[in-house]
Design a protein that fits this description.
Dna Ligase, domain 1; Rossmann fold; six-stranded antiparallel beta sheet; seven-stranded mixed beta sheet
């Protein structure tokens, strides 16, 4: 059902910019668009009667600054005037600098800040949130007549990516149509009755360029690409706020149906770390899919376990204090007996030490993750996605953060089936709760996670836990 719009007051945006030139240019753009902008210090803007706060820092915040900004962002989000932060900074070098940047930005996002790395998307996000609020989800529909600049923009975007873009006739959907969208962008120049909603979807005017802005009472967004980025950023913000800001509370572990006895058994091993066997025991207690495996003290026991697990198997030494490479492709009892000694020798251990016999992991994409305690910002999960760099979120993960981390994993080649992102998100969320099971856990490291195609699941293949040193 399409509802008529009420007379709309111009949205108010607070502008907090560290750089004077940026502040002047943003104020001028806002003035041309008819969007009232009030320049305020960030701390003052949080309590001001505005719809959104456009914040442009001069430099990327460090961890100490992020801790302060996170408190302001959480307060602003609670007051329904979110901080939309421009993050147009140079990319840091790979390594610890890139990880620190990912951690800082993740901490801010999780506490209610809306981060945008493109200036156009940043401003349109602030306008969208101030004028209309956040859409219920990320699905966007476009209503535009054939021909013209906006239709050309839509065609160009469609050539880049398919899926998620809908195009209705110029008169829009009918009164009874069910829109498969959360936000409907309508060409602002259409002579059609103004509407604030179509079913559950927000209806927002869109101008292809600022020069094509029509007159009228309703605030319009500018530029299809920037508007789509704004819609996605606002929808992610709404999803996160619906679940709460910051890391998930420890009490949410009840939903996972944790086997506390099994987890405590894994933690009962002494030393400064847990090896692959005990780490997976802890993970499995939290429902994380792990390889089926057992510890064999003799070659005969190893053969028996291999037959139970199913050929082929892998073999690696059971030694919590060091990592050993797995002997792979073990396909029969003679291979097991040879592998029993080869796995120990390869790790520099005496032949005869216990050996882990485990299933051969399924095929899929491999990536690594770890949960570690950041000195200033608390436990953080870092996911290393090949080709995308590190992405992060506070631990334990809320589902919105887990889904966003998993979304960074793309299909490796054109035409490949998409990876099972839902299974990866579930694995990461459960592993993040396992990592904070006990205060003695310093870090949980998943050196290899295998993600199958959609519907095939995800599995932790190699894992270890680093414990705090006892003083």
């Amino acid at each position: 059902m399409v509802t008529r719009a009420r007379a709309q007051a111009a949205p108010r945006v607070a502008l907090a910019a560290d750089d004077e030139r940026t502040a002047v240019e943003v104020a001028r753009v806002a003035g041309e668009r008819g969007v009232p902008v009030e320049r305020l210090a960030l701390e003052s803007a949080v309590a001001a009667p505005v719809g959104a706060i456009a914040y442009a820092p001069e430099a990327a915040p460090d961890a100490a600054r992020a801790a302060t900004l996170a408190r302001l962002a959480a307060a602003a989000a609670e007051n329904r005037r979110p901080i939309v932060m421009l993050c147009a900074f140079g990319r840091p070098r790979p390594g610890r600098a890139a990880e620190e940047r990912a951690i800082v930005f993740a901490h801010l996002r999780a506490h209610g800040a809306v981060l945008c790395d493109d200036p156009d998307a940043w401003f349109e996000t602030a306008v969208l949130l101030a004028a209309y609020g956040a859409p219920a989800g990320p699905r966007v529909a476009l209503v535009a007549p054939p021909g013209g600049w906006l239709a050309a923009q839509a065609a160009a975007l469609a050539a880049e990516e398919t899926g998620g873009r809908l195009l209705y006739p110029p008169d829009g959907p009918g009164e009874s149509d069910e829109l498969p969208a959360d936000l409907v962008l309508v060409d602002a120049r259409l002579d059609a009755p103004a509407a604030s909603r179509a079913g559950r979807a927000l209806v927002v005017p869109l101008a292809a360029r600022a020069e094509l802005m029509p007159g009228g009472e309703r605030t319009a967004l500018v530029g299809l690409r920037a508007a789509l980025a704004a819609a996605a950023a606002a929808a992610r913000h709404a999803a996160r706020l619906a679940q709460g800001v910051g890391p998930a509370p420890a009490a949410e572990a009840k939903r996972l149906k944790v086997d506390r006895a099994r987890a405590d058994k894994a933690m009962a091993v002494g030393g400064e770390r847990l090896g692959d066997q005990e780490s997976k025991l802890l993970l499995s207690a939290y429902g994380v899919p792990v390889t089926r495996q057992a510890v064999a003290h003799t070659p005969s026991a190893a053969v028996r376990y291999a037959e139970q697990i199913g050929w082929p198997v892998e073999m690696l030494p059971w030694d919590p204090e060091r990592d050993g490479a797995a002997v792979t492709g073990v396909r029969n009892p003679p291979d097991v007996r040879r592998g029993f000694g080869a796995a120990a020798s390869a790790a520099g251990l005496a032949v005869g030490v216990p050996i882990i016999v485990r299933q051969t992991p399924p095929a899929g994409r491999s990536l690594a993750a770890r949960v570690e305690r950041h000195a200033s910002l608390g436990p953080m999960l870092l996911l290393d996605v090949p080709g995308a760099g590190p992405v992060a979120a506070p631990a334990p993960l809320r589902r919105a953060d887990a889904d966003e981390l998993a979304a960074a994993l793309e299909a490796s080649r054109a035409g490949d089936a998409p990876p099972d992102r839902a299974a990866l998100a579930e694995l990461l969320q459960r592993a993040s709760f396992a990592a904070v099971h006990d205060e003695s856990i310093e870090a949980l490291v998943l050196t290899r996670i295998v993600v199958g195609a959609k519907g095939e699941g995800a599995m932790a293949v190699d894992a270890r836990v680093r414990l705090k040193r006892k003083r």
